[in-house]
Amino acid sequence: MAQANEIPLGLYVALESTGLVELSFDPSKSVQKSLSVVSVCKDAGHMPNWVVARGDEVYSINRTAYPDGRSSSGGVHSFRHDDTGFHAICKASSHGKGGCHISVSPDGKALVATNITGSTVTVYPLSDDGAIGEPTYVFDYNKTDPGPLAAHPHQTSFDARGRLMLSALRTMDCVDIYAYRSPQDIVKIARITLPPLSGPRHFAIRSVTLSRALLYVLSEKENSIRVYRLNMTDAGPVTVNLMQAIGTLDKNCQLTAPDMNDLAAEIAISDDGRFLYASNRGFQSLANDTMTVFAIDDTSVEHHLVYVDTQRTYGKHPRNFALSRDSANQWVAVANQFSQDLVVFERDVQTGRLGSVRGKMDLRVKGTDEITFVNRLSLEGVVTIRDCLKGRLEGPMCVQWKK
Protein backbone atom coordinates (compact mmCIF):
# COMPACT_ATOMS: atom_id res chain seq x y z
CA MET A 1 0.00 0.00 0.00
CA ALA A 2 1.15 3.52 -0.77
CA GLN A 3 2.10 5.57 2.26
CA ALA A 4 1.77 9.31 2.68
CA ASN A 5 4.40 11.00 0.53
CA GLU A 6 7.12 12.99 2.23
CA ILE A 7 7.72 15.48 -0.58
CA PRO A 8 5.68 17.08 -3.37
CA LEU A 9 5.48 14.78 -6.37
CA GLY A 10 6.71 16.38 -9.54
CA LEU A 11 8.94 15.51 -12.48
CA TYR A 12 11.02 17.14 -15.19
CA VAL A 13 11.21 15.54 -18.64
CA ALA A 14 13.68 16.36 -21.42
CA LEU A 15 11.48 15.94 -24.50
CA GLU A 16 13.29 16.10 -27.85
CA SER A 17 10.29 17.41 -29.77
CA THR A 18 9.57 20.30 -27.46
CA GLY A 19 11.89 21.22 -24.59
CA LEU A 20 11.58 20.72 -20.85
CA VAL A 21 8.24 19.56 -19.49
CA GLU A 22 7.24 19.85 -15.83
CA LEU A 23 4.70 17.25 -14.70
CA SER A 24 2.78 16.70 -11.49
CA PHE A 25 1.98 13.23 -10.22
CA ASP A 26 -1.00 12.54 -7.94
CA PRO A 27 -1.17 8.82 -7.10
CA SER A 28 -4.65 9.23 -5.62
CA LYS A 29 -5.99 9.67 -9.15
CA SER A 30 -6.51 7.06 -11.86
CA VAL A 31 -3.67 5.80 -14.05
CA GLN A 32 -4.79 8.00 -16.95
CA LYS A 33 -5.24 11.16 -14.83
CA SER A 34 -2.48 10.99 -12.21
CA LEU A 35 0.08 12.73 -14.48
CA SER A 36 -0.59 16.25 -15.73
CA VAL A 37 1.40 19.05 -17.37
CA VAL A 38 2.32 21.97 -15.12
CA SER A 39 4.59 23.97 -17.42
CA VAL A 40 6.59 23.69 -20.64
CA CYS A 41 9.89 25.40 -21.48
CA LYS A 42 10.64 25.70 -25.20
CA ASP A 43 13.91 27.55 -24.61
CA ALA A 44 16.13 24.52 -24.00
CA GLY A 45 17.70 24.26 -27.46
CA HIS A 46 17.23 21.80 -30.30
CA MET A 47 16.58 18.21 -29.14
CA PRO A 48 17.02 18.41 -25.34
CA ASN A 49 18.68 15.20 -24.12
CA TRP A 50 19.12 15.49 -20.35
CA VAL A 51 17.86 17.48 -17.39
CA VAL A 52 19.02 17.64 -13.78
CA ALA A 53 17.72 19.67 -10.84
CA ARG A 54 19.41 21.01 -7.74
CA GLY A 55 16.87 22.73 -5.55
CA ASP A 56 15.19 25.45 -7.59
CA GLU A 57 17.94 25.40 -10.21
CA VAL A 58 17.42 23.28 -13.32
CA TYR A 59 20.12 22.46 -15.87
CA SER A 60 19.76 20.83 -19.27
CA ILE A 61 21.77 19.92 -22.35
CA ASN A 62 20.62 19.79 -25.95
CA ARG A 63 21.98 17.60 -28.70
CA THR A 64 23.00 19.99 -31.46
CA ALA A 65 22.44 23.32 -33.28
CA TYR A 66 23.65 25.58 -30.47
CA PRO A 67 23.28 28.52 -30.70
CA ASP A 68 21.59 28.06 -34.07
CA GLY A 69 21.36 25.76 -37.08
CA ARG A 70 24.76 26.84 -38.37
CA SER A 71 26.46 25.02 -35.49
CA SER A 72 26.58 21.29 -34.71
CA SER A 73 27.59 21.78 -31.06
CA GLY A 74 25.28 21.04 -28.20
CA GLY A 75 24.32 23.63 -25.60
CA VAL A 76 23.99 23.80 -21.80
CA HIS A 77 21.19 25.78 -20.18
CA SER A 78 20.43 26.93 -16.64
CA PHE A 79 17.02 27.93 -15.31
CA ARG A 80 15.47 28.99 -12.05
CA HIS A 81 12.18 27.25 -11.44
CA ASP A 82 9.26 28.47 -9.35
CA ASP A 83 5.48 28.15 -9.27
CA THR A 84 5.21 30.08 -12.53
CA GLY A 85 7.55 27.82 -14.50
CA PHE A 86 11.09 27.98 -15.89
CA HIS A 87 13.06 31.25 -15.97
CA ALA A 88 16.24 31.28 -18.04
CA ILE A 89 19.46 32.27 -16.27
CA CYS A 90 22.02 31.67 -19.00
CA LYS A 91 23.21 29.25 -21.68
CA ALA A 92 26.48 28.29 -23.32
CA SER A 93 28.06 25.94 -25.83
CA SER A 94 28.67 22.37 -24.65
CA HIS A 95 31.86 22.42 -26.74
CA GLY A 96 31.07 19.31 -28.72
CA LYS A 97 28.57 17.58 -30.97
CA GLY A 98 25.94 15.33 -29.51
CA GLY A 99 25.23 16.77 -26.06
CA CYS A 100 23.72 13.79 -24.24
CA HIS A 101 24.29 14.06 -20.47
CA ILE A 102 24.76 16.69 -17.78
CA SER A 103 25.45 16.49 -14.06
CA VAL A 104 26.18 18.74 -11.08
CA SER A 105 28.86 18.04 -8.46
CA PRO A 106 27.63 17.31 -4.92
CA ASP A 107 29.06 20.63 -3.69
CA GLY A 108 27.04 22.46 -6.35
CA LYS A 109 30.11 24.22 -7.69
CA ALA A 110 30.65 22.35 -10.98
CA LEU A 111 28.55 21.42 -13.99
CA VAL A 112 29.84 18.76 -16.39
CA ALA A 113 28.53 18.23 -19.93
CA THR A 114 29.09 15.06 -21.97
CA ASN A 115 29.14 15.19 -25.77
CA ILE A 116 28.98 11.75 -27.36
CA THR A 117 29.55 12.57 -31.03
CA GLY A 118 32.24 15.15 -30.37
CA SER A 119 33.98 12.92 -27.78
CA THR A 120 34.39 15.82 -25.35
CA VAL A 121 33.62 16.39 -21.67
CA THR A 122 33.29 20.00 -20.54
CA VAL A 123 33.47 21.29 -16.96
CA TYR A 124 32.01 24.66 -15.92
CA PRO A 125 32.04 26.51 -12.58
CA LEU A 126 28.60 27.36 -11.19
CA SER A 127 27.85 30.54 -9.29
CA ASP A 128 25.56 30.70 -6.28
CA ASP A 129 22.73 32.03 -8.44
CA GLY A 130 22.95 29.10 -10.90
CA ALA A 131 24.85 30.92 -13.64
CA ILE A 132 27.22 28.85 -15.78
CA GLY A 133 30.78 30.22 -15.96
CA GLU A 134 33.44 29.86 -18.62
CA PRO A 135 34.73 26.27 -18.99
CA THR A 136 37.65 25.33 -16.77
CA TYR A 137 38.27 22.09 -18.69
CA VAL A 138 37.37 20.67 -22.07
CA PHE A 139 38.58 17.08 -22.05
CA ASP A 140 38.93 16.38 -25.76
CA TYR A 141 39.43 12.67 -26.32
CA ASN A 142 40.08 13.26 -30.01
CA LYS A 143 43.37 14.84 -28.94
CA THR A 144 44.32 12.75 -25.91
CA ASP A 145 43.17 9.39 -27.34
CA PRO A 146 43.16 9.90 -31.11
CA GLY A 147 42.32 6.41 -32.29
CA PRO A 148 41.60 4.05 -33.81
CA LEU A 149 38.21 4.28 -32.02
CA ALA A 150 36.49 7.48 -30.96
CA ALA A 151 35.81 7.70 -27.23
CA HIS A 152 32.09 8.56 -27.46
CA PRO A 153 31.53 9.39 -23.75
CA HIS A 154 27.91 8.89 -22.73
CA GLN A 155 27.85 9.81 -19.02
CA THR A 156 30.09 11.84 -16.75
CA SER A 157 29.08 12.07 -13.10
CA PHE A 158 30.42 12.37 -9.55
CA ASP A 159 30.43 10.02 -6.60
CA ALA A 160 28.15 11.03 -3.72
CA ARG A 161 31.04 12.29 -1.61
CA GLY A 162 32.25 14.56 -4.41
CA ARG A 163 35.78 13.15 -4.51
CA LEU A 164 35.65 11.43 -7.90
CA MET A 165 34.41 12.32 -11.36
CA LEU A 166 33.92 9.37 -13.73
CA SER A 167 33.27 9.20 -17.46
CA ALA A 168 31.97 6.17 -19.39
CA LEU A 169 33.57 5.98 -22.85
CA ARG A 170 31.14 3.87 -24.83
CA THR A 171 33.11 3.13 -28.00
CA MET A 172 36.59 3.09 -26.45
CA ASP A 173 35.32 0.56 -23.87
CA CYS A 174 36.78 2.40 -20.88
CA VAL A 175 35.74 4.27 -17.76
CA ASP A 176 38.02 7.14 -16.80
CA ILE A 177 38.31 8.18 -13.15
CA TYR A 178 39.29 11.72 -12.16
CA ALA A 179 40.08 13.18 -8.74
CA TYR A 180 37.75 16.14 -8.20
CA ARG A 181 38.65 18.92 -5.78
CA SER A 182 37.04 21.92 -7.46
CA PRO A 183 36.01 23.00 -10.98
CA GLN A 184 39.58 24.29 -11.34
CA ASP A 185 41.30 21.18 -9.98
CA ILE A 186 40.45 17.91 -11.74
CA VAL A 187 43.09 15.27 -12.51
CA LYS A 188 42.74 11.85 -14.17
CA ILE A 189 43.97 9.17 -11.79
CA ALA A 190 42.82 5.85 -13.28
CA ARG A 191 41.28 4.11 -16.28
CA ILE A 192 39.19 0.95 -16.20
CA THR A 193 39.44 -1.02 -19.44
CA LEU A 194 36.47 -3.21 -20.31
CA PRO A 195 36.36 -6.02 -22.91
CA PRO A 196 36.29 -4.87 -26.56
CA LEU A 197 32.82 -4.05 -27.92
CA SER A 198 31.18 -4.13 -24.50
CA GLY A 199 30.06 -0.51 -24.81
CA PRO A 200 30.03 1.03 -21.29
CA ARG A 201 27.16 3.49 -21.38
CA HIS A 202 26.11 4.49 -17.86
CA PHE A 203 27.12 3.72 -14.30
CA ALA A 204 26.06 4.03 -10.69
CA ILE A 205 28.48 4.47 -7.81
CA ARG A 206 27.79 3.68 -4.19
CA SER A 207 29.92 4.72 -1.22
CA VAL A 208 30.53 1.91 1.27
CA THR A 209 33.06 3.55 3.62
CA LEU A 210 35.09 6.76 3.53
CA SER A 211 37.77 4.96 1.53
CA ARG A 212 35.78 2.38 -0.43
CA ALA A 213 33.09 2.59 -3.10
CA LEU A 214 31.37 0.14 -5.43
CA LEU A 215 31.06 1.03 -9.11
CA TYR A 216 28.37 -0.59 -11.27
CA VAL A 217 29.06 -0.16 -15.00
CA LEU A 218 26.24 -0.84 -17.46
CA SER A 219 27.50 -1.89 -20.91
CA GLU A 220 24.88 -1.57 -23.61
CA LYS A 221 26.33 -3.71 -26.41
CA GLU A 222 26.79 -6.89 -24.36
CA ASN A 223 23.89 -6.07 -22.01
CA SER A 224 25.91 -6.43 -18.85
CA ILE A 225 26.73 -4.94 -15.48
CA ARG A 226 30.26 -5.11 -14.10
CA VAL A 227 30.78 -4.48 -10.42
CA TYR A 228 34.11 -2.95 -9.34
CA ARG A 229 35.49 -2.26 -5.88
CA LEU A 230 37.25 1.11 -5.69
CA ASN A 231 39.71 1.69 -2.85
CA MET A 232 40.69 5.32 -2.39
CA THR A 233 43.27 7.23 -0.38
CA ASP A 234 43.47 10.91 0.55
CA ALA A 235 46.60 11.15 -1.58
CA GLY A 236 44.56 10.39 -4.68
CA PRO A 237 45.44 6.93 -6.04
CA VAL A 238 42.57 4.50 -6.66
CA THR A 239 42.86 0.73 -6.88
CA VAL A 240 40.21 -1.09 -8.89
CA ASN A 241 39.13 -4.72 -8.52
CA LEU A 242 36.50 -6.49 -10.63
CA MET A 243 34.00 -8.38 -8.49
CA GLN A 244 31.31 -9.62 -10.89
CA ALA A 245 29.94 -9.48 -14.43
CA ILE A 246 26.27 -10.32 -15.00
CA GLY A 247 23.79 -10.01 -17.90
CA THR A 248 20.74 -7.73 -17.74
CA LEU A 249 18.26 -9.24 -20.20
CA ASP A 250 16.59 -12.08 -18.30
CA LYS A 251 16.92 -14.71 -15.59
CA ASN A 252 19.76 -16.47 -17.44
CA CYS A 253 21.95 -13.42 -16.69
CA GLN A 254 24.17 -14.15 -19.71
CA LEU A 255 26.25 -11.51 -21.43
CA THR A 256 25.38 -11.18 -25.12
CA ALA A 257 27.34 -10.85 -28.34
CA PRO A 258 27.56 -7.21 -29.51
CA ASP A 259 25.04 -7.79 -32.31
CA MET A 260 22.90 -4.73 -31.44
CA ASN A 261 19.75 -6.85 -31.14
CA ASP A 262 19.35 -5.56 -27.60
CA LEU A 263 20.93 -2.58 -25.89
CA ALA A 264 20.94 -1.89 -22.16
CA ALA A 265 20.11 1.73 -21.40
CA GLU A 266 20.00 2.93 -17.79
CA ILE A 267 21.05 1.86 -14.30
CA ALA A 268 20.06 3.02 -10.80
CA ILE A 269 20.32 1.84 -7.18
CA SER A 270 17.75 2.30 -4.43
CA ASP A 271 18.85 4.64 -1.65
CA ASP A 272 18.86 1.82 0.90
CA GLY A 273 21.46 -0.01 -1.21
CA ARG A 274 19.33 -3.16 -1.44
CA PHE A 275 18.29 -3.18 -5.12
CA LEU A 276 19.69 -2.31 -8.53
CA TYR A 277 17.65 -1.64 -11.68
CA ALA A 278 18.64 -1.82 -15.37
CA SER A 279 16.48 -1.06 -18.40
CA ASN A 280 16.70 -3.03 -21.65
CA ARG A 281 15.88 -1.94 -25.21
CA GLY A 282 14.98 -4.58 -27.80
CA PHE A 283 15.43 -3.96 -31.53
CA GLN A 284 14.06 -7.21 -32.97
CA SER A 285 10.37 -6.69 -32.22
CA LEU A 286 7.80 -4.04 -31.34
CA ALA A 287 6.97 -5.73 -28.04
CA ASN A 288 7.17 -3.85 -24.75
CA ASP A 289 10.71 -3.50 -23.43
CA THR A 290 11.83 -4.47 -19.95
CA MET A 291 13.52 -3.54 -16.71
CA THR A 292 15.50 -6.09 -14.71
CA VAL A 293 15.73 -5.99 -10.93
CA PHE A 294 18.70 -7.30 -8.93
CA ALA A 295 19.12 -7.65 -5.19
CA ILE A 296 22.43 -6.43 -3.77
CA ASP A 297 24.25 -8.83 -1.45
CA ASP A 298 27.11 -7.04 0.29
CA THR A 299 28.26 -10.28 1.92
CA SER A 300 29.23 -11.82 -1.44
CA VAL A 301 31.82 -10.89 -4.02
CA GLU A 302 31.14 -13.28 -6.92
CA HIS A 303 27.36 -13.11 -6.40
CA HIS A 304 27.06 -9.52 -5.28
CA LEU A 305 24.14 -8.93 -7.69
CA VAL A 306 21.37 -11.53 -7.47
CA TYR A 307 18.67 -11.72 -10.12
CA VAL A 308 15.14 -10.92 -8.89
CA ASP A 309 12.87 -10.34 -11.90
CA THR A 310 12.48 -8.90 -15.40
CA GLN A 311 9.37 -6.78 -15.90
CA ARG A 312 7.67 -4.89 -18.71
CA THR A 313 7.97 -1.12 -18.95
CA TYR A 314 4.66 -0.83 -20.84
CA GLY A 315 6.41 1.06 -23.61
CA LYS A 316 9.16 0.91 -26.20
CA HIS A 317 12.80 1.95 -25.68
CA PRO A 318 13.13 2.82 -21.96
CA ARG A 319 16.08 5.12 -22.49
CA ASN A 320 15.98 6.50 -18.98
CA PHE A 321 14.19 5.98 -15.67
CA ALA A 322 14.37 7.52 -12.21
CA LEU A 323 13.54 6.46 -8.66
CA SER A 324 11.59 9.03 -6.67
CA ARG A 325 13.53 11.00 -4.08
CA ASP A 326 11.46 10.16 -1.02
CA SER A 327 13.25 8.03 1.57
CA ALA A 328 11.61 4.82 0.32
CA ASN A 329 12.06 5.49 -3.43
CA GLN A 330 8.38 4.60 -3.63
CA TRP A 331 7.91 5.41 -7.31
CA VAL A 332 9.79 4.61 -10.53
CA ALA A 333 9.24 6.84 -13.57
CA VAL A 334 10.20 5.35 -16.94
CA ALA A 335 10.77 7.45 -20.10
CA ASN A 336 9.97 5.24 -23.11
CA GLN A 337 11.55 7.10 -26.02
CA PHE A 338 10.14 5.29 -29.06
CA SER A 339 6.57 4.95 -27.80
CA GLN A 340 6.83 8.56 -26.55
CA ASP A 341 5.29 8.01 -23.15
CA LEU A 342 6.05 8.23 -19.46
CA VAL A 343 5.02 5.43 -17.10
CA VAL A 344 5.10 5.60 -13.28
CA PHE A 345 5.23 2.36 -11.28
CA GLU A 346 4.79 1.87 -7.59
CA ARG A 347 7.88 0.12 -6.19
CA ASP A 348 7.72 -2.73 -3.69
CA VAL A 349 10.33 -1.65 -1.16
CA GLN A 350 10.57 -5.15 0.33
CA THR A 351 11.08 -7.21 -2.84
CA GLY A 352 12.42 -4.46 -5.11
CA ARG A 353 9.96 -5.41 -7.86
CA LEU A 354 7.98 -2.90 -9.87
CA GLY A 355 4.39 -2.94 -8.66
CA SER A 356 1.28 -1.67 -10.37
CA VAL A 357 1.28 1.13 -12.93
CA ARG A 358 0.04 4.27 -11.18
CA GLY A 359 0.43 6.74 -14.02
CA LYS A 360 0.89 6.85 -17.77
CA MET A 361 1.06 9.85 -20.08
CA ASP A 362 1.45 10.11 -23.83
CA LEU A 363 4.07 12.74 -24.70
CA ARG A 364 3.47 12.93 -28.42
CA VAL A 365 2.98 16.58 -29.31
CA LYS A 366 -0.28 17.56 -30.98
CA GLY A 367 0.43 21.26 -31.39
CA THR A 368 3.53 23.46 -31.62
CA ASP A 369 2.40 27.05 -30.95
CA GLU A 370 0.55 26.06 -27.79
CA ILE A 371 1.97 22.72 -26.71
CA THR A 372 -0.65 20.02 -26.22
CA PHE A 373 -0.20 16.29 -26.03
CA VAL A 374 -2.06 13.39 -27.61
CA ASN A 375 -4.61 11.76 -25.29
CA ARG A 376 -3.95 8.03 -25.56
CA LEU A 377 -5.41 5.94 -22.74
CA SER A 378 -4.12 2.44 -23.53
CA LEU A 379 -1.93 0.98 -20.80
CA GLU A 380 -0.17 -1.31 -23.28
CA GLY A 381 2.78 0.25 -25.07
CA VAL A 382 1.57 -0.59 -28.58
CA VAL A 383 3.77 0.96 -31.26
CA THR A 384 4.37 0.75 -35.00
CA ILE A 385 7.62 1.10 -36.91
CA ARG A 386 6.53 4.63 -37.82
CA ASP A 387 6.05 5.43 -34.14
CA CYS A 388 9.58 4.21 -33.43
CA LEU A 389 11.09 6.35 -36.18
CA LYS A 390 9.31 9.44 -34.88
CA GLY A 391 10.08 8.64 -31.26
CA ARG A 392 13.77 8.34 -32.04
CA LEU A 393 13.80 12.05 -32.88
CA GLU A 394 10.93 13.37 -30.75
CA GLY A 395 10.56 11.19 -27.65
CA PRO A 396 11.42 11.65 -23.96
CA MET A 397 15.15 11.27 -23.37
CA CYS A 398 15.37 11.80 -19.63
CA VAL A 399 13.07 12.01 -16.60
CA GLN A 400 14.03 13.32 -13.17
CA TRP A 401 11.97 13.69 -10.01
CA LYS A 402 11.85 17.17 -8.53
CA LYS A 403 13.71 17.57 -5.26
From TrEMBL:
<dbReference type="InterPro" id="IPR050282">
    <property type="entry name" value="Cycloisomerase_2"/>
</dbReference>
<dbReference type="InterPro" id="IPR011048">
    <property type="entry name" value="Haem_d1_sf"/>
</dbReference>
<dbReference type="Pfam" id="PF10282">
    <property type="entry name" value="Lactonase"/>
</dbReference>
<protein>
    <recommendedName>
        <fullName>3-carboxymuconate cyclase</fullName>
    </recommendedName>
</protein>
<dbReference type="InterPro" id="IPR019405">
    <property type="entry name" value="Lactonase_7-beta_prop"/>
</dbReference>
<comment type="similarity">
    <text>Belongs to the cycloisomerase 2 family.</text>
</comment>
<dbReference type="InterPro" id="IPR015943">
    <property type="entry name" value="WD40/YVTN_repeat-like_dom_sf"/>
</dbReference>
